[in-house]
From TrEMBL:
GO MF entries: structural constituent of ribosome
Organism in which the protein naturally occurs: [Clostridium] fimetarium
Lineage, highest ranks first: Bacteria, Bacillati, Bacillota, Clostridia, Lachnospirales
Name this polypeptide is given: Large ribosomal subunit protein bL28
N-terminal signal peptide: none
Alphabetical UniProt keywords: Ribonucleoprotein, Ribosomal protein
Amino acid sequence: MAKCSVCDKGAHFGNAVSHSHRRSNKMWKSNVKSVRVNVNGATKKMYVCTSCIRSGKVERA
């Protein structure tokens, strides 16, 4: 699973609890996109989460 290169956000793990309170494993995946980013004047492909893209932490190419 990909992680955000800016904030290090990745997948979260826990339990899915049913109505009868039986537990099974659950995985919440973060919304990470492969984006072309300007880094020191050069373009580079990075994995960035959508919250970092919306907040303006990265400059898209």
